[in-house]
Amino acid sequence: MKHMNSEVKEERTSNKKRIDLFLVPIVLIAAFLNLFKIWTDEYANAYYTAAVKSMLQNFHNFFYASFDPGGYVTIDKPPVVFWIQTISAKIFGFHGWSVILPQALAGIGSVLLLYVLVKRTFGVWAGRFAALAMALTPIVPAVSRTNNIDSMLVFTLLVATWMLFRAVRTAKFGWVLAAFAMIGVAFNMKMLQAYMVLPAFYVFYVVATKITWKKKIAFLTTATALMLAVSVSWAVVVDSTSADKRPYMGSSQTNSVLELAFGYNGINRLTGNTSVTGSSHKQPAQTEQQTASSETKQNSNSSADSSQSSNQRKSSSSQKMQAPGGGNQNGMFNTGNPGPFRLFQKGLSDQISWLLPFVIFSIVGLFVGVKFKGPYTTKQKESLFWLAWLLPVAVFFSIAGFFHQYYLIMLAPPIAAFAGAGAVALWSMYKQHNGWKSWLLPGGILTTAALQVYIMSPYVSSIGVAPIAGVGALGVILALVLAVRKQRKNSLTNYLGAAVMVVLLAMPAYWAMTPIIYGGNSMLPSAGPDSSSGMGGPPSTATNSKQSGFNGMQPPGSSSSNSSSNNQMQPPSGSSNSGQMPGGSSNNGQMQPPSGSSNSGQMQMPGGSSNNSQMPNSFSSKSSSLKRKSGGMNAEVNQKLLNYLTKNNTGEKYLFATTDSTSAAPYIIKTGKPVMAMGGFSGSDPILTVSKLKAMIKKGEVKYFYLSGMGKGGQSDVITWIKENSKEIPSSKWQSTSSSAQQGPSGNGTLYEITLK
């Protein structure tokens, strides 16, 4: 630690070929957190895994990222990450781990890239601390252990950052073009989310380059044009292709990639607006709860139903959680209330905010004495870059109408960079007795420890009092020791630097391990003792340990009759994109029960029956193992149904059709055969019309239809026509009655057969 303050010269650093021995254990930690036991996740996020299965079959499906082998509808994201996953599955075979592997490697790569980026300017110890902070940021391994996109997105943006820094260092315009082109590639991973770093790129290039303003404007304009061209390249090809020659663009309302990019995956994330009943009309997300409630009333046929609907609304209201920072925890998927303290609320703070107070103190230390007009040192310029990445992204997540917890990985690089650079800077100020600036280090430690105690306090029933009290006590003791020894110079002081990092990173390290300890959720990845639930936040007061999280759900078709409690939740029925999991929109209110449900407070799965699910209270290793295998929701098939459909298929293209992707995905994964998700991911895409369906049936493309009460959206006319013109298949022929029935379409749904001449 004696050499923490030494800075490595740029040229000398770039020429050194020796391996940093301190980096090796950091990389091994990252590898363990990202890779260990990913082979137990059989299906990963089944929605995306089904797409990889389809993309493996032919180039048409591969290029368009078709969800199903029949090329009926695409997934709700651009194809680049799924191209990489498909290549991985082609090389290693189709497995859950083979589609997760690229993201796990990207998580490790991000740790290495951050080390390289920070070390060159701020010194080797800063690079080490930054890399370690990145590896131990809980949401980073939680996401990287799944086949969701965000880990690969962050890695790509860090590659673009490396190119930009090199462009400034070498004064070569080609690297500027490469950096912005890489952002265009990232756009084809997750669309507008990739553009969140643009303020940092523009600000840094303007401040850091020593060229005329005319050249700066010309270079940035050209680079931006290239970025836009790369960004829309795939979209232009798809949108210019005749609709009958390609799959429908999933989760769009107009069958357009550009509409998907700037609507569903763009502005709607900020506003929280979602499409309603498959139309292009937009409705504020906060009113979706009212819409669902209204639909429940309209569909109620008895006073009992009305009474039940009222009870469910009361139950939903009673489940609003008090969030740190004020207000109720209203956001679906536990993303809290918009506001300046949102990142300190439950469900978000334990994913990303462990080091935020220390980062704030670090920013003060790094920018102290900076004049607006410059001149700026290299350290100040790069600090400005990370600040211009951190602030806009933090503001977005503080005000956004809808996002999932795992999106917060976008904040991990700047937080880790400031943690590393700030640790060295504040340590230097402390040892040099720089007046008030020497108090930034103990102040940062004390406030960070206080926040970590605050973050952990709701989890006392899961993790116990000892670690919470330990972090608080060590934070206070270390801050006091630093204050007392501030005027002394001896070797003992040097060891305090190591103690600082241990205190700051001990609990984030534990939280980062929770997806391994307790099991992860591949659809809604998050970290924490309840990581397998995918809902984040502290455990609820569920009383039946056999029903913890999604692991405790009774599969559709199960004979269990356990009643639910009012602590349970359901997504709304009939509303568009409500309660969606992978990348879907949601309302910001409480989850509502579907109309006609007889189980108050239960969560009903798309394409399945009501499930007696409670939020986690018990986290046994047995349930964790099941969670990793199940991959989220409805990740296994009803074998009796599959046998029936296979036996009675007479050459139809589709094994069967169903309302949404949740019911279809496991059968695509299991068989590799086309299964039609008539309304796309959530069942709300306006893909089918009655006339189009009639034509498909007459051509012999499909004859079996599995319908449940979920996912109608904009296909009400189609579903009504199916029911009126079909033959119902007796459930005894296809529905499992075993209490250990596998998941998949069964339970309260109905199987229909239609043949037209």
What's the helix count? 28
Structural category: mainly alpha
Assembly level: single chain
Query: What's the story with the biggest beta sheet?
Result: 5 strands, mixed
Helix fraction bin: 40-55%
Q: Which percent range describes the beta-strand content?
A: under 5%
Mean pLDDT, rounded to whole units? 79
Shape: globular
Major sheet: arrangement of strands: 8-7-9-11-10
Q: Could you give the count of β-strands?
A: 11
Determine Rg (CA atoms, Å).
Answer: 27 Å
Distance between the termini: 82 Å
Question: What are its keywords?
Answer:
757 residues, mainly alpha, disordered N terminus
Describe this structure in words.
This protein is mainly α and 757 residues long. 51% of the residues lie in helices and 3% in strands. The protein is built from 28 helices and 11 strands. A 5-stranded mixed sheet has the order 8-7-9-11-10, sandwiched between helices. A two-stranded antiparallel ribbon has the order 1-2. β3 and β4 (328-329) form a beta hairpin. α5 packs across α6 (96-122) and α10 (173-190) packs parallel to α12 (213-239). The radius of gyration is 27 Å and the shape is globular. The chain starts with 9 loop residues before the first helix and ends with a strand. Residues 1-15, 275-330, 540-634 and 739-744 have low confidence and may be disordered.
Summed up:
This protein has 757 residues and is mainly α. Helices cover 51% and strands 3% of the residues. The longest helix is centred in the first third of the chain and has 27 residues, at 96-122.
